[in-house]
């Protein structure tokens, strides 16, 4: 079982950390994939470089397995982050577009109605990234944050994106690239220490946070995750819980009347979070203030119908 780290040469925030990582000891050339993607090997880690859009190269895990016979345990994509604020940031997030209808066109890769299993390292790596950023004097200039589940590429292995934002000035920053490289180096145990965020060594902490509601940077869920090392599943912001308002009276009488893709998004995100954490207990954590009263009611009703438990902040510690 190998960990696949993926970078693209077309993105300075992707190839910069990849180059910094490859400058560390122990790497040697690996097999090429389909003749045009180079790889590098270090212990049980494979770094794959390609020249295409990071969100458009689907199923790299299965393609690697078919080419090499090695089973892929997880995938970590290195990428740039963009934001309207242009604020410098180091971000981590799961991927998927479970809120899109089958007829929709996904603007940034992936398949409508799909979500990849979230990489179990997301929560522990967020804390490690904050520690590294502080030690390298990147904070408070750079915000260290989670993002909600969004974009592609389509893939079936436990996956996360690690990103540098939010403009070209910061995508090219060598100190940020070094911090991301160090995150991968330490997080995967390449430096000789224990890997960080290994679900099989959860020490009895088996509650996983499935975030529902809030903005793109999921602040209410972040508050819980940063208080203690919390396992993190999918994080669905309000824009991924699309509801068609049938009128408050109808919503109160019959939550099934509330159309939109919100139910499908919750189901897919819950199921793939369960798959990523075998034997774990996935609990929905709801950003109460981000919903109207009728929305909270129908979400709670649907969660009960689906036998999805709801957790309070203290339940995850």
Overview of this protein structure:
With 317 residues, the chain is of the alpha/beta class. The protein folds into 2 domains: 2-197, AF0625-like (Aminopeptidase); 202-316, Rossmann fold, CATH 3.40.50. Helix content is 30%, strand content 21%. It has 9 helices and 11 strands. The protein has helices spanning 12-22, 60-68, 122-135, 168-171, 174-187, 219-227, 248-253, 262-276, 293-305; strands spanning 2-8, 28-29, 38-42, 45-50, 72-82, 89-93, 143-146, 159-166, 207-212, 231-236, 281-286. The strands form 2 sheets. Strands 2-3-4-1-5-8-6-7 form an 8-stranded mixed sheet. The protein has a 3-stranded parallel sheet with strand order 10-9-11, sandwiched between helices. Helix 1 packs across helix 5. The protein is globular. The model has no long low-confidence stretch (mean pLDDT 94).
Q: Summarize the helix and strand pattern as letters.
A: EHEEEHEEHEEHHEHEHHEH
As for the CATH topology of the largest domain, it is: Aminopeptidase
Helix-and-strand structural type: alpha/beta
Sheet-strand content, in percent, reads 15-25%
Shape: globular
Tally of individual domains: 2
Low-confidence stretches are: none
Query: Span from first to last CA?
Result: 30 Å
Main beta sheet strand tally, sense and closure:
8 strands, mixed
Q: Percentage of helical residues?
A: 25-40%
Cα-atom Rg, whole angstroms?
A: 19 Å
Mean pLDDT: 94
Side by side, the strands of the main sheet go 2-3-4-1-5-8-6-7
In the CATH scheme, the class of the largest domain would be: Alpha Beta
How are the SSEs placed, and which strands pair?
Blueprint: E1 2-8, H1 12-22, E2 28-29, E3 38-42, E4 45-50, H2 60-68, E5 72-82, E6 89-93, H3 122-135, E7 143-146, E8 159-166, H4 168-171, H5 174-187, E9 207-212, H6 219-227, E10 231-236, H7 248-253, H8 262-276, E11 281-286, H9 293-305
Parallel strand pairs: 1-4, 1-5, 5-8, 6-7, 9-10, 9-11
Antiparallel strand pairs: 2-3, 3-4, 6-8
